[in-house]
Predict the structure.
Amino acid sequence: MNRVKNIRKQIGSRLVKQLGLEPLDKSVLDSINDSNFEKLYLETFLGFLITFLYFLIFHFFSKIDTLGRESWRIGIEFTHFTLTSILLILFVLSLFQAKTRTGQRTVYEIVLQVMTISVAFIGGIALTVIDQNVTASISPFLVVCIIVALLFKLRPIVAFCIFFLAYMVFFFSIGIYQQDSAIILSNRINALTMAIIGGFLSSLFWRTAVKSKSQQDYIEKQQLELEKINKQLAILASSDGLTGLQNRRMLDRRLQEELESARINHTPLSLILFDLDHFKEYNDLYGHVQGDDCLKMMSSQLLESLDMDKNSLFRYGGEEFFLLLSNCPPAKALETAERIRQGIIALQIPHEGNPSIPFVSASFGVFTLENSQVVTDLEVLQQVDVLLYRAKAQGRNCSVSGVA
């Protein structure tokens, strides 16, 4: 029993897929609708020109020698004139919609497509039926089947219904003027064959479009995921794992860029290097885990309390931090360093191994490059490092500045 149920389930699933009854994403349906509708105004315009040209040809160049042929000519002219008028209206409507559409599938656009298909089939059948006065050919109906199949991607169940209805109209109409039963039978069989082929082609194009769009969406989704991962990797590669600040690698890159910008724009560039005082003693007293917590607390609370730009603050290494300030004059750079120094003290992180105060403090070297001279990043790093050691030599918990 279970095997029979599984077989029935598989058959049902395959049938649902073949008829296009499976649920599809809105983006897929919108994409197929775009493909069908984007050229609709052009298709209706070409149809208008062709039917109008045929009307002129039959009106001025058809030679009539019998009463039967006269009725045939009038019928053909009337049909082409009617098609010309309707296609002109559809062209105007579709052109206006094409200029104002938002790219999303609407009932109005679907109606325009259905009307165009219906007009094509009705016109093709009418011309075929009238042609039976003078010929057994069903070329107009065959041509319409091919045109609809090639120009419109239809859901398989919809394509089946449309081509089936068109064939049924053809089936009951073909005998209006054609009296030869053999010709009628032959035409019905030929038309059925063409309707089946047309429905199959339209369904095939639908499934191909669905598969293509689904694959495209999958690729785009994978690309977005890859970009997201790459961004995360870039952040990891440029960030310090402990504090979350930018690391030394990013400092080297940014410093070169800022030096070049300062040279070109003739603007001052300030660098602040600060080091937590007696931090080795802090680790010895409280342990390295507590030392890491201290660095993290200092980094996060410092940025938050002082409203510092995270992109300008770097972990230089160990307990050393670096601040890069573009277009910053010496006085403002020293003021910034002092504000940070006071902010670190205000955190009141206990440090019994600090001789000056019983809290974590820091020493600052502040260097400002005012002249647009050509210097290397190594030279400016050496300058600010010298100023930091001067601050340490002066008793720590202070700022020493220099200008070049």
Notes: The radius of gyration is 41 Å.
